[in-house]
Design a protein that fits this description.
The complex is a heterodimer. Helix content of chain A is 81%, strand content 0%. By secondary structure, chain A is mainly α. Chain A folds into 2 domains: 117 residues; 146 residues, no CATH class. Chain B folds into 3 domains: 160 residues, Beta Polymerase, domain 2 (2-Layer Sandwich), CATH 3.30.460; 142 residues, Rossmann fold (3-Layer(aba) Sandwich); 73 residues, no CATH class. Chain B is α/β, with parallel strands linked by helices. The chains are: A mainly alpha, B alpha/beta. At the A-B interface, helix 5, helix 7 and helix 9 of A face helix 8 and helix 13 of B.
Amino acid sequence: MTHLFFYLTVAVYGCATIAYLACLLRTSPVLTRWAGRILVVGFSTHLLSTIHLASRMKYLPLTNMQESLSFFSLAIIGSFVFFERRYKVTTLGSFIVPFALILLIASSSLHEVARQLPPILQSNWFWVHALLAFASYACFTIAAGVAVMYLIQRYFLKTKHLGALFLKLPSLDTMDEINYRCLTVGFPLLTIAIISGSIWSEQALGSYWVWDRKQTWSLIIWIIYAALLHGRLTIGWRGKRAAILSIIGFIVVLLTFLGMKHSIIW
Amino acid sequence: MNIIVVGLSHKTATVEIREKVAFSPNQIEKPLSELVKLEGIVEGVIVSTCNRVEIYATTRDIAGGISRIKRFMAEYHHLEFEALESHLYSYHAEAAIRHVFRVASSLDSMIVGEPQILGQIKTSYGYAAEYKSSGIILNRFLHKAFSVAKRVRTETKIASSAVSVAFAAVELAKKILGDLSDKTVMLIGAGEMCELAAKHFLNSGAKGVIVTNRTFERAQRLAEDFGGEAVRFEEFIENLHRADIILSSTGAPHCIIGPKDAEEAIKRRRFKPIFFIDIAVPRDIDPKVDKVENVYLFTVDHLQEIVQANLAQRGMEAEKAEEIIDQEIGQFHKWLSTLEVTPTIVALRNRFDEIRRTELDKTIAGWKDLPPDAGKRLEALTVAMMNKLLHAPSFVLKQSGQGGRVDLYVDALRQLFELEALQRDDEELELEE
């Protein structure tokens, strides 16, 4: 049953990816509408699949790499659906949806059997920590997506290549605004995630901060985004500089997430 | 007599080159007078706008005239002839007429159908008329071009669907600045284009206008029109940071905004982007300004691309316009070809008459016992002979107007009988009209 939901989700996301990539090539309101609808269907099946898994295992599916990748993907699509409604940025989907699909497919290749939950994870602080962390990661993913789009659009404007893609991409101002919004949402989420994580660490290991690689890198991520937000608010950083920094931040997020196993969990 | 056109436009040259060969309207008298002093060039008009620099002239020697005008353009602006030549196009006879009709009708414009070009040609013609470099043919020619343009405008939808540079500027601004409702526009200098763009920006919701001009009164008047604020020209640099969109079209010979100014302004507004639009040729804004982060500089050249998408739709109307032009070319060409017939006949007649008189006077002076009425008889005899001799050529020449061989006949007669070339002897020709 879970598998069925899962493959259905992959298939629908696949369709949504094709639809969003087609939106890059063709201007058609019908196509745009359908891309959005397909994605919402995909998001719903994905959500159902996650709920189904959670109810079967009696915990949130966030405990290993496979579950986390799938949940990350869900969070990204969820926040994209929100931003698309809010800012009408279909083109963002052409960048974000394929990425979420790749995460989901990667998660399926890592299929692991359901296992007994280690006692260390049986803490409410862990769930708060993991949920918030993924929510903030999703925000940073969107931020990095618009940052890439910003840089492309900026390149078009600076080199005066005003072609079809230029007309497709949203205005610099909109993209900068989305980037900023993502930060203002993502950064507090990350902060609370780190705090709740350290409370959990105290419960599980008896120390708020153990300086393992995951914690250290989380702190580095926090510092990068803190610097970016600070720069934006006080100095007025925006545009190219903010875009590059949020892409760097996202790369570090991704490396931390994929490359470093949590010494506490695994 | 032939009409020739030599020039370059946005289609053959970038703004960097166009601004080098642009003729400033303030000093147009000098190039105009030099132009008509060129060997073989009879009349001349110089049209210099930001998108094109063209010289219209009349000459007998097409090839020579074209090459002399090309050299003139290079030499006048101290440019290397070889470098410039590749950007220059030239037309003669019917192609020249068609070209000018198309330009005046805005079919050759960067943004097809934009209305400013007609006014610009009228102004250029005004200078030529004022400094007497245009004569009977170009006068008639340009008036015809104006009426063709008017016909195209009223009979096709070219103009009504015209997507002007101004409109393109607004679209581009939205791509950079997003919503325009809280944005301020600054106008530097005045000009039809600039004002039009400002109106478009206000219609699209822009919040305010700052106007500056070398003559402060002018700025005040314009500011009043737009419900904006006037700033003294000396102070506009200090106010740059207050504007999100800056439109510049002064007649300044050098750049008035440099990268330093832009950097300063950007810092003062905490890196909020500025969209510069340079409408002036030569340019007002240093191209290096575009290198400043968060600053986007566009010239009229660049604006073209954003409206490219809308051009296809106007193809049909353009075809209709070309048909109108085809009709008008026929009429004008006919007029042009018969234009020289009468003066040539008159000149030929005068030449014959002159010879007749000289010889008659010589004969009478050497005749000792002249019968009382011999003078009169001889006079009648020679006049009759001359009329008979001239009758056939005059008749053929007048008839050939329709056939198109008239240029050949006129040229042959002028050379065979060493007739004075028809230099801009306007008075005589105007009487003929």
